[in-house]
Every structure is written in C-alpha cells, then in structure tokens.
C-alpha cells in the first residue's frame, strides 16, 4: 500500500475542519429559522441575516469518532435503523403516568388517583407523540410569560372558569396571562410585594420556592423577575391544562399532588413554600401535609398560606363555609405549626406567613416534651414512592449558613462542607465545577444559541452536583436538574443549596410532565447508568415526548453507548452528529448532538 502523502493528510484535515464549521452553522441557522409565535422568522434569524453566522472552527473537535477498538461494531452501526412511527393524534397530550382513564381506577381518598400510576410494560406506547397541527415555537422570555400560542395548548375552559380571577384570556390566536390568580386577581406583582414586606425576597436570601397547587403558575412567573425560582406543581385534574400552560409560558412546573406519597424533593431544600387557595386540606390527617412541607423546607425557610381559612371571621360568607368549620381548620393548622416549631411572622388580610426555626436543638427539646412522633427513616431523602407519614422529620444536625444568591451558586454548599454527602468532598466539588465549566464552554462553541434565549426550558437528566446548570445560569433560562433514583450519590440537596431546583426521578418511567415541555435536554452518562436497568428505546422515546419540535439534545457518554443510541434515534426524526470530547479524539467519552425535526399530527413527512 502506498504511503499517504502530506497532501493527503492536509486534505483529511480540511475535510474535518469543514465538518466542524458545517455543524456549527447547521445549529446556528436551524435554531434561528424556526416557526415563531406567528409563523415568522424570529429576531435571531433577522440578526443572522444582518451579521451572518460566525462559525469559528472548534480546536480539537471532530465529528468523526476516533475511538479505537470499535471495528467489531461497524456492522451493527451500519445496519438499517428501526423506524419509529407517530402515535395516533389522540395522544397529543399524553402523560403516561398521569393518564386520566387509568387514574379513575384508583381510590380517590387522599388524592391517590391523581398520583403517579405508570402503565405496565404491555401497555407502554412504542411510538412518537405528535405535536398538534399548527404547533409553533413558543415566544421567547419574557414575552412567553404573558402570551402562549393557542395552537400549542388549544384549551379554552380556563378562560371561562377563571374569567373573573384574571388567570387567562383568549385573544385572537394567543392566550394572554394578565398575571392574576384566585387569591390575587389584581396581579401577582402586587401580591408578591405584600409577601416581600415580611420575607427577604429582594436580597437573595430567598432563592428557591415551592408552589403547591400552582394553577397556571403566575406566582412563579413573576417571582422569576425578582431572581427567585419556583418549583410549581399541580395535578392533572379538572383544570386539565394548568401545568401545560405554565410550561408553555416558560415557568418551571411538574404534574404533582400532595396525596399519599412523599414529594420527590430532598429534605431541607426550599427557602419558601407557598399555597394560594390551593385546596389542600392542611388540617386533615393530623397535619401530615404540613409535616411533608416541613420536611422539604430548610431551617429559616418560610411558609405562606393565603386564602381559607385565614381571617375566616371576615370572609366566611364569601367562601360559603360555616364559621365553625373554618375556625376548626385554622385551629388545626396553628396547632401543627406549633409542633413543627414554626413561628408566625404575620397575618394580614387573607395572608399568613410562618418561619421555620433555625434553632433545631431548642425545637427538638420542645417537640420531645410534646411527645410528637419523629420519623424513623434514617434517610430523609429516600422518598421515591415512599408513603407519607404522620411524623416530623428531624432537622439536619449540620445546617450551615446559606450565602445569598448568586453568591451561593459557586460557594461550597453546607452539605458538602460538613461532609454530609458520602463520597463528595470539597475538593471533589471544586473539581466537578472546573470540569463542567470546560464542558459547557465546548457546548457553546458547538451550539451558539445555547445562551441567547433560544432555549428557555432545559432539562439535565443526570444532574450530579448541578454544575452544568450553574455554568449556563442565566435570567433567560432555567434548568430542571434530575437526580436519578438509582444514582450512586444523593446530590439533589446540594443542588438546592446552590440556589437551583430539581427533582428525583427514575428514567425507567415517564417524567411527570406534558409532551413538548423542554427546549433542550442534556444527558451525562445516563445511558451507562441505566444499562441493564431498562430499555434504552423507552428512555429515548420519553426524551422525544418531552422535547419540543426543533429542540436540541446533548448526550455525553462512552462511545460504544452512543453508537447504540445514535442508531436508535436515526429512526426518530432526529438530526444527529457525533463529536469528540473537548480534550481530543483519544478520549473514549464522546458527545452526541441532535435536533428534533419539526412535524405534527397526521403529517406523513417532516416540514
């Protein structure tokens, strides 16, 4: 065989450079020329037209795999990919674990039927969920806070049912959200101003919030402009599209309920919890729901309750409830709050605010004197499908000081500083932060739209210590940090201490959200983690379900894993490219970049 000439080498290098530049331009232009709220090219596209796409070459990044030892897999890789068919159009808004028909077969007691009930293996769909006809890319933030294209969630019932409460209005081909709510018809901003007179919202002390029974999440939407991020949840019930509207607005939300199962969040996580006319029976079940809020509320955190039964003496007629009923409900709430060592800071009009004590030792002695029952579980974060109990979760022995946000984003989290997370030291945390800073910089060179506002709702499927989210932190986006229930280290509490939000989840099941929730999905070593645990095909179809048309995917994993993933997604209407690790082609870890094609229900071809 003739020895390759230097000219041949230069030719191969030029081809590699061309491929790198080509994918950069591919992302930049594809992300720009997409269907915006009114079917027109958006501002990003106009900017490209004016300036042209600046697609610089990324050093040491090639889109060909250079990992040795993969010859045996060539036949498998080149074999014909399985083609996944679209599901029937009746599944446009399918939520596998909150399916309405299945829900009705479960008991209604304590909202059990509104909890997660996933389909058995033989009932799983193995097709791709379509978008509705006319689907368009949501408006960029902050316009999306106030407007949602009608085609994306074509449900008008709330515009009638909640008309006088200023939740939502239908105007032409969009829904408008004036910012009102059942408890704040004059707007969320004014309501939040009332809370801020008691709660330190302005100085970064309060960063993470939990909104129980969130409606269309206007409270969370308006908190975001004050640098507070809320995890909002509500059941898929008679207000069927409420969480869907929240997500279309670009507000963090999941389908969920306070029922019989513990919330999928770590202990001592949130700076503030909130219920505004959320219809949760706080005084029932011996205060069990308040005890669950106490578990997820950090020492020093605040609980806000507005609406019944607060100030019942004035409002009982308007609420159409008896004085006796409301008085007893408030008595039970006050009694439980005392057991939990919550101090009432304010009761004004229909709003009451409590603060959880920071003095855990003093509280514990008072609780013991009251003969309260403490939870026996040795791990307060072991919550996945665990039954809620009438017991008090002991506060963490080592609490530490929270820095105000954004300083706490990069400060050493108290759980790590105290050695409370097995296997994670201060040095480990700092190395992780450095590693992800490098990874994210590489991502931004590949996809120039990453921090432009093009991607608002982002998911990290295997979030670790939250360093990916920390390094793309921006007022233009938020990240749902998922810590898999089978992860080796329980790190979700650390993520909250950084001022980020997240949730526990098992990726062998569907996520608690509507289709087309996320603009970008990031996955690090997830498929290696779930190898032999469940079917890769099921995980990829779930990713496709929750990803918007023209949304992007970044999958980082070992090359042999990515080859199998790439083969599957080739049959899912995803455009893909494999790229090398930023440290060069000899690193066996690679990155698979993908963009989901635009297609809608009953469409036989992509558009």
From TrEMBL:
GO terms for biological process: methylation. It comes from Glycine soja. Its EC number is 2.1.1.-. GO terms for cellular component: endosome; Golgi membrane; trans-Golgi network. It is a single-pass type II membrane protein; Single-pass membrane protein. Belongs to the methyltransferase superfamily. Its main location: membrane. Pfam families: Methyltransf_29. This is Methyltransferase. It is found in: Endomembrane system; Golgi apparatus membrane; Membrane. One of its GO terms (molecular function) is methyltransferase activity. The chain crosses the membrane at residues 15-33. InterPro entries: Put_SAM_MeTrfase, SAM-dependent_MTases_sf. Keywords: Glycoprotein, Golgi apparatus, Membrane, Methyltransferase, Signal-anchor, Transferase, Transmembrane, Transmembrane helix.
């Amino acid at each position: 065989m003739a020895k390759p000439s230097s000219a041949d080498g230069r030719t191969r290098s030029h081809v590699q450079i061309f491929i790198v530049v080509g994918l950069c331009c591919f992302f930049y232009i594809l992300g720009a020329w997409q269907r915006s709220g009114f079917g027109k090219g958006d501002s990003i596209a106009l900017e490209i037209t004016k300036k042209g796409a600046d697609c610089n070459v990324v050093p040491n990044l090639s889109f060909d795999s250079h990992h040795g030892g993969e010859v045996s897999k060539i036949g498998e890789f080149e074999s014909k990919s399985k083609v996944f068919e679209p599901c029937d159009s009746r599944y446009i808004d399918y939520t596998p674990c909150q399916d309405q028909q299945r829900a009705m077969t479960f008991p209604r007691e304590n909202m059990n039927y509104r909890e997660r009930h996933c389909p058995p293996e033989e009932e799983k769909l193995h097709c791709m969920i379509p978008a509705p006809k006319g689907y368009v890319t949501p408006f960029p933030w902050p316009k999306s806070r106030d407007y949602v294209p009608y085609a994306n969630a074509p449900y008008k019932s709330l515009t009638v049912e909640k008309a006088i409460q200023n939740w939502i209005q239908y105007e032409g081909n969009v829904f408008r959200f004036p910012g009102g709510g059942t408890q704040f018809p004059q707007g969320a901003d004014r309501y939040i101003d009332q809370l801020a007179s008691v709660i330190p919202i302005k100085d970064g002390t309060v960063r993470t919030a939990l909104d129980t029974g969130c409606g269309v999440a206007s409270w969370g939407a308006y908190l975001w402009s004050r640098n507070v991020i809320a995890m909002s949840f509500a059941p898929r019930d008679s207000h069927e599209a409420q969480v869907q509207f929240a997500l279309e607005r670009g507000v963090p939300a999941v389908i969920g309920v306070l029922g019989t199962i513990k919330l999928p969040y770590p202990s001592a996580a949130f700076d503030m919890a909130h219920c505004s006319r959320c219809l949760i029976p706080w005084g029932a079940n011996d205060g069990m729901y308040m005890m669950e809020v106490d578990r997820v509320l950090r020492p020093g955190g605040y609980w806000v309750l507005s609406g019944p039964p607060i100030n019942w003496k004035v409002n009982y007629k308007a609420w159409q409830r008896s004085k006796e009923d409301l008085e007893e409900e408030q008595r039970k709430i006050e009694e439980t709050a005392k057991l939990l060592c919550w101090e009432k800071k304010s009761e004004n009009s229909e709003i009451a605010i409590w603060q959880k004590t920071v003095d855990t030792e003093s509280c514990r002695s008072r609780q013991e004197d009251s003969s309260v029952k403490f939870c026996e579980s040795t791990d307060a974060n072991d919550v996945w499908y665990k039954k809620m109990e009438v017991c008090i979760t002991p506060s963490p022995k080592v609490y530490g000081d929270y820095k105000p946000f954004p300083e706490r984003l990069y400060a050493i989290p108290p759980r790590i500083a105290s050695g409370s997370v097995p296997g994670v030291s201060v040095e480990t945390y700092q190395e992780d932060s450095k590693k992800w800073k490098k990874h994210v910089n590489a991502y931004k060179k590949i996809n120039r739209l990453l921090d432009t506002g093009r991607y608002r709702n982002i998911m990290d499927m295997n979030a670790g210590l939250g360093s990916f989210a920390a390094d793309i932190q921006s007022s233009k986006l938020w990240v749902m940090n998922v810590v898999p229930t089978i992860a080796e280290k329980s790190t979700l509490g650390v993520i909250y201490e950084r001022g980020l939000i997240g949730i526990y989840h098992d990726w062998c099941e569907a996520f608690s959200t509507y289709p087309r929730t996320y603009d970008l999905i990031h996955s690090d070593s997830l498929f290696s983690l779930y190898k032999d645990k469940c079917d890769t095909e099921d995980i990829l179809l779930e990713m496709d379900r929750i990803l918007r048309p023209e949304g992007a995917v970044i999958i980082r994993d070992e090359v042999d894993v990515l080859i199998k993933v790439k083969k599957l997604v080739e049959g899912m209407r995803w455009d893909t490219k494999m790229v090398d690790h930023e440290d060069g082609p000899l690193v066996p870890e690679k990155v698979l970049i993908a963009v989901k094609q635009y297609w809608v229900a009953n469409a036989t071809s992509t558009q």
